[in-house]
Design goal:
The complex is a heterodimer of chains A (about 500) and B (about 325). By secondary structure, chain A is of the alpha/beta class. Chain A folds into two domains: about 140 residues, Aspartate Aminotransferase, domain 1 (Alpha-Beta Complex); about 240 residues, Type I PLP-dependent aspartate aminotransferase-like (Major domain) (Aspartate Aminotransferase, domain 2, 3-Layer(aba) Sandwich). Chain A is built from 16 helices and 14 strands. In chain A, strand 7, helix 9 and strand 8 form a beta-alpha-beta unit. In chain A, helix 2 packs parallel to helix 13. Chain A is globular, with a radius of gyration of 25 Å. The N terminus and C terminus of chain A are likely disordered. By secondary structure, chain B is α+β, with helices and mostly antiparallel strands. Chain B has three domains: about 80 residues, Rossmann fold (3-Layer(aba) Sandwich); about 120 residues, ATP-grasp fold, B domain (D-amino Acid Aminotransferase, Chain A, domain 1, 2-Layer Sandwich), CATH 3.30.470.20; about 70 residues, Dna Ligase, domain 1, CATH 3.30.1490. Chain B has twelve helices and 13 strands. In chain B, the strands form three sheets. In chain B, strands 8, 9, 10, 11, 12 and 13 form a six-stranded antiparallel beta sheet that branches. Chain B has a four-stranded antiparallel beta sheet with strand order 4-7-5-6. Chain B has a three-stranded parallel beta sheet with strand order 2-1-3, with helices on both faces. About 5% of the residues of chain B have low confidence. Classes of the chains: A alpha/beta (about 500), B alpha+beta (about 325).
């Protein structure tokens, strides 16, 4: 049973009288939890915030093979041509075997940086190799930036919801994370401005703003051009760094591209995080950051300490791949696949989810964010869904303040169309059952004011559809943040 | 030296803890000179057990399949002796409603309760009875799934408005839900270990919430937000009473080998109440039973050794018979 799994929580206070009594009621012989204490006493205080949770234990079950997992953020690597892989490997073996097996410079190989420049150029960004640091996946950028900028208690401004994988990074550096609500046009920059003012009054200066402007993980929303301009302007005016995380920018399924924050700001206050994970392979663990020179220098020192250099083999693979094969064509093929899966998921949501549910309609990326009535806790729902062999990420993973409990993140890139549809069907069935059960339970107590609640009408950008939670509104409802377009219909 | 199959993992929601418990058990068995064969339980468990043909099985499965008697039934069929409780005791302790009815019947203290199935609400209109239930138990009320070993799905309803959502959550884990009067007081866990002279109660572990807010019920169960004190600082008479109540519960349910009984010591009345019994409590390095055993001078290896010897002895009796 998990309740008794103390996770470093032992505080033994044994008496230690040297006797070896075992019978009922006798005094203990020595301090308890000795094994535990032996290590726990050595842990840094920051590990206290690195804790396990019921949700993480549940997520462990999602890896079972019979489970349709809409939980991961996995790109589909199954269509990558093995022949291309073989050609890339052969090329490295023939041309740069010794080099591939050797350490490389911390900042990364020049030829790899040329590939990165090509990828950034595809989103209209010009970058100099000197402004780049090649990293072990984009995740390392999060770690290095936080390590470089954050003292314990310093403020990081993030989106609400934010990338669940950033949460443990911020936590492990004891950052004070302030989350700014997101709506269908991305981060609410008006709230950002208010929050920054408030922080200033409180004498707290945030170090950086973390954002995924395009096809946000987990909300699937994209920041409007107007807000992008405002954000860049705020950063400049307040001399505040912005970490722009753009893993999915090239995975657009409709509409026209918005300029990146970096291209709007010219790389003065914007640190730009890119990755090959979603356009080539997450397995090669290759990402990068483009940042202002003084920041880059510190990030470089941090990276030296962390792992000396990014895998030379991986860097050479990218380089050989760019020479071997038209990388844009592969991204285009992925885009086709993911667009179809997104459409399948949107159709399935419209077909199988009850009217009380809302979700985003992402124009790209990998995720749809679904918000359910506030009486449904999605961590509990996950436990129920796992009985039907389907999984998703409960919304609470995307918040540091306990919000998001009625939302979930669904991934459509990692499963085939049939699995996507079946997975959504199973979740929808469980949600419908719970909505019906709740209706049965509350039918008897039609609280005064309930019809008025209903009549409040359609959701607006600033308030999440009060008509969806027909029952006594709670603080949970007011706290919900990502107002989503309601049942937007078939794609 | 014996060959011991360690059953762990499985498909339950408590898989993670079970994998760790099983790993600990395997290490301990090997240090004791046994051959430990770890089996992550899946659809092929019978085949793997047959292939391993162990002298005994150590059941380190928590939650569904492990604590509800399923795996024990399979092991009985295969004729493999196993650690801990048998099928019937598992059934009695897995289902908290059954446990509580048995406790009430034999005069053991347990917080007042009412239990309903999902069907009762959907088809029998049990929702109509909610006000009566609420009146009888009075708020705050604890709402929990009838089955399931972990704290998952346990909600604390402070007012009538909290009840429906708490029920929806609890029904995510089980088909039946328990409403229980909230006993305010101290959380005590009594571990029991069988031995040559019969089962004995080990020093009591108290779970102490770290946060100030005593009423933050969920926090008490959230990993990392609770400290554990062993032995609990209790008057000798209270300790003796807690041991007695726990041992009587152990016998009543027919538990065997080892188990853990969770109690509440009510503030003010100083009355003890049995919340539940766990047929297969956690055995990780931070779990309560190993902490309690250590407080009694029994290290993890010795604890595991004793539990496994009991199973092997059963096997020997079986073979002789």
């Amino acid at each position: 049973m998990t309740v008794d799994d103390a996770q470093g929580g032992g505080t033994g206070r044994g008496a230690g009288d040297g006797r070896s009594g075992r019978a009922c009621g006798e005094l203990p012989t020595r301090s308890t939890s000795r094994d535990l204490e032996r290590y726990a006493g050595l842990f840094a205080s920051r590990t206290r915030v690195m804790r396990s949770s019921a949700m993480r234990d549940l997520m462990a079950v999602t890896a079972r093979p019979e489970v349709i997992s809409l939980a991961g953020g996995l790109p589909d690597t199954s269509t990558f041509p093995p022949a291309t892989f073989a050609a890339v490997a052969a090329r490295i073996a023939a041309e740069s075997c010794a080099r591939a097996l050797q350490y490389g410079p911390t900042e990364g190989l020049a030829d790899t940086k040329a590939c990165i420049a090509e990828v950034m150029a595809a989103e209209d960004m010009a970058v100099d190799g000197d402004d780049l640091l090649v990293t072990t996946g984009g995740q390392q950028v999060l770690d290095l930036v936080t390590k470089t900028l954050i003292d314990p208690g310093d403020v990081v401004v993030a989106e609400a919801p934010t990338y669940p994988g950033a949460v443990p990074v911020f936590s492990s550096y004891e950052a004070d994370v302030v989350q700014i609500d997101v709506d269908e046009h991305g981060m609410r920059v008006d709230l950002l401005e208010e929050t920054l003012d408030r922080l200033e009054r409180e004498g707290r200066r945030p170090k950086f703003v973390y954002t995924i402007p395009s096809f946000q993980n987990p909300a699937g929303v994209t920041m409007s051009l107007e807000r992008r301009r405002t954000l860049v302007e705020i950063a400049r005016r307040r001399e505040l760094l912005v970490l722009e995380d753009n893993p999915y920018g090239l995975l657009r399924y409709e509409g026209s591209r918005e300029p990146t924050l970096r291209s709007l700001d010219g790389g003065i206050y914007v640190m730009y995080l890119g990755t090959f994970s979603k356009i080539l392979s997450p397995g090669i663990r290759l990402g990068w950051v483009a940042a202002p020179a003084p920041v880059l220098e510190k990030l470089n020192l941090g990276k030296q300490a962390a792992d000396l250099c990014t895998s030379t083999l991986s860097q050479l693979m990218v380089q050989a791949y760019f020479e071997e094969s038209p990388w844009r064509a592969y991204v285009d093929s992925l885009t086709e696949i993911y667009r179809a899966r997104r459409d399948t998921m949107l159709d399935a949501l419209a077909e199988f989810f009850p009217a009380e549910a809302q979700w985003t309609r992402p124009a790209g990326g990998l995720f749809i964010w679904v918000t359910l009535p506030d009486f449904i806790d999605t961590t509990d729902l996950l436990a129920r869904a796992l009985r039907d062999n389907v999984a998703f990420v409960p919304g609470e993973a995307a918040y540091l303040d306990g919000r998001g409990r009625s939302s979930m993140r669904l991934n459509f890139s990692g499963s085939g169309e049939d699995a996507v549809r079946e997975g959504v069907r199973r979740i929808g069935k469980v949600v419908s059952e719970q909505v019906a059960l709740y209706g049965t339970l509350t039918g008897r107590r039609a609280a005064p004011g309930r019809p008025a609640e209903r009549a409040r009408g359609a959701p607006t950008a600033s308030h999440p559809s009060p008509d969806l939670a027909a029952d006594p509104p709670t603080e949970e409802l007011a706290a919900r943040v990502v107002p989503m377009r309601r049942r937007s219909g078939r794609a | 030296m014996s060959r011991i199959a360690v059953l762990k993992g499985g498909r339950s929601l408590e898989r993670q803890v079970s994998v760790r418990s099983g790993g600990r058990v395997e290490d301990a068995l090997e240090r004791l000179g046994h051959e430990a064969i770890g089996i992550d339980v899946d659809a092929d468990v019978i085949g793997r057990l047959r292939a391993a043909s162990p002298d005994a099985a150590f059941v380190a499965l928590h939650g569904e399949d492990g604590e509800d008697g399923t795996i024990q039934e399979l092991l009985d069929v295969l004729g493999i002796p196993f650690t801990g409780s048998g099928v019937l005791a598992c059934l009695r302790s897995w289902d908290k409603v059954l446990t509580k009815h048995l406790l009430v019947e034999s005069g053991l203290p347990t917080p007042e309760f009412v239990a309903f199935s999902e069907t009762a609400f959907e088809q029998l209109g049990a929702g109509e009875a909610l006000p009566a239930i609420e009146e009888r138990l009075s708020f705050p009320i604890v709402v929990k799934p009838a089955t399931g070993g972990s704290a998952l799905g346990i909600k604390f309803a402070r007012a009538a408005a909290d009840v429906p959502a708490a029920l929806v959550a609890a029904f995510s884990y089980a088909d039946r839900v328990l409403f229980e009067r909230h006993v305010r007081g101290r959380d005590l866990a009594v571990s029991i270990l069988d031995g040559p002279d019969g089962p004995v109660a080990l020093p009591i572990v108290e779970a102490v919430p770290r946060d100030e807010d005593f009423y933050d019920f969920e926090a008490r169960y959230e990993i990392g937000r609770t400290s554990f004190v062993c032995p609990a600082e209790l008057a000798p008479a209270v300790t003796a009473r807690a041991h007695e109540v726990a041992l009587r519960t152990y016998h009543l349910l027919g538990l065997a080998g080892f188990a853990r009984v969770d109690l509440m010591l009510e503030e003010g009345s100083e009355e003890l109440f049995v919340l539940e019994a766990n047929a297969i409590p956690g055995l990780t390095e931070t779990s309560l039973v190993p902490q309690a055993a250590e407080a009694a001078g029994i290290g993890l290896d010795e604890l595991i050794g004793r539990i496994v010897e009991l199973a092997l002895a059963l096997g020997a009796v079986g073979a002789a018979g």
